[in-house]
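REVIEWER CHECKLIST
Item 1: Sequence provided? yes
Item 2: Single chain? yes
Item 3: Sequence as submitted:
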Amino acid sequence: MRKYAARSGRREPEEDETYIPGRQFLSGVVDAVRTLGEQTAFIGNALASTVDAVRRYPGEVLRLIAVLGMGTGALAVIGGTVVIVGFLTLTTGALIAVQGYNTLSNVGIEALTGFLGAFLNVRFIVPATAGVALAATIGAGATAQLGAMRINEEIDALEAMAIRPITYLASTRIVAGVVAVIPIYTIAMLMGFLATRFGTTIVYGQSRGVYDHYFSSFLHPTDLLWSFTEALSMAAAVMAIHTYYGYNATGGPAGVGEAVGRAVRSSITAGVFILLTITLSVYGQSGNFHLSGG
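Item 4: Structure as written out by the authors:
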């Protein structure tokens, strides 16, 4: 065949490279480590430049706070992220009332529904719900916006004008996300409390005095502070991850959509990890509460 190919003037296809077992697996591991390193370097640079972003671009930070909190265009009419997060925590708080009252009434201790409202809302339900909502609202919006700027070469234009794009685009959004989450999370926590109380006292008819007694007995200010710490940590992680994927988006509009999907998946995973880590670090195995009479 080689002689025939030589006489006919055709080139014989080159033989495949020598097969090495595990090459594809090793190549995948190397690519994953490289991507992790790039992502770590980007997020570290963005977090380290937050102070510089506030000092150099205060107007941009204020604009982003308004956009992230209230939205733009038609979304601003209904309140943007504030209303979305508040509605989600409203439904989860109502679920605590429904499931908690019915479950406790089976063993005759439905009076402790107020304890569930103070315990579950603060430590687990509202932080987890807010983390998912932040990833799906302000996080996804940041990824789409930065991705559109990347494919339209607007980020390259910033570099040509000697503007540090990571500080101007990523660090400002991280600062704005952390600041905007404070009123958003406050409303989310209040909506969770109100929904649980409304469902228990109005729908199921429990005495308000009984509910308020157990609710106030097990609601500790330190738990609220740690809950806000969880929310701020998740907001910083969400914005850092989403800005990375938006900043490095490729492939046109389809690539931007893919970047948004990957960013939401990664940020939700990071948020759950942060919630689990802080909860275990603060409360440990005991739960840090004593359920007893007296």
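Item 5: Key structural point noted by reviewer: The longest helix spans residues 113-151.
Item 6: Recommendation: ____
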